[in-house]
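Need a sequence for this fold. Nothing fancy.
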C-alpha cells in the first residue's frame, strides 16, 4: 500500500506522497510522516510552541513599555524623583539611593 497523504513537490505544488504506507486510518493508508495521529501531535506541538513564543514576546514588549513609561515619568519630573529619593533615604529605604542615581544619570544626559 502507498501513502494517501500529500507532500510539497520540488516545484512547490502539492502532490501525492506515495511513500510505503505503515498505518491505516479510517480506511486510508498513510506513511509514518502522514500518519494522521502523528500529524495531529506535530501540529499541536507546533501550536503550543508558537503560543509560548508569542506570550514570551508579549512579556518582553510589555516590560519594555513599562520601562519606557518609567523613564519618561522620571524625565518629566526629576525634581519630584529627587525629593522622593531624599525622603526614601531619610526613612532608610533602599529606593532612595536608586532614585538619586536616576537623577544623576538624567543630569548627565542633559549636560
Ligand atoms: Zn506519506
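Here you go.
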Amino acid at each position: 500500500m502507498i501513502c494517501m497523504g500529500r507532500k510539497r513537490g520540488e516545484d512547490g505544488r502539492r502532490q501525492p506522497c506515495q511513500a510505503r504506507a505503515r498505518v491505516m486510518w479510517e480506511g486510508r493508508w498513510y506513511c509514518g510522516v502522514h500518519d494522521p495521529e502523528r500529524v495531529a501531535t506535530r501540529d499541536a506541538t507546533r501550536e503550543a510552541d508558537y503560543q509560548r513564543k508569542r506570550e514570551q514576546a508579549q512579556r518582553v514588549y510589555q516590560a519594555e513599555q513599562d520601562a519606557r513609561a518609567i523613564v519618561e515619568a522620571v524625565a518629566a519630573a526629576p525634581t519630584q524623583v529627587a525629593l522622593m529619593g531624599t525622603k526614601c533615604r531619610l526613612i532608610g529605604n533602599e529606593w532612595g539611593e536608586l532614585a538619586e542615581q536616576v537623577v544623576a544619570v538624567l543630569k548627565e544626559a542633559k549636560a
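For context: The mean pLDDT is 87.
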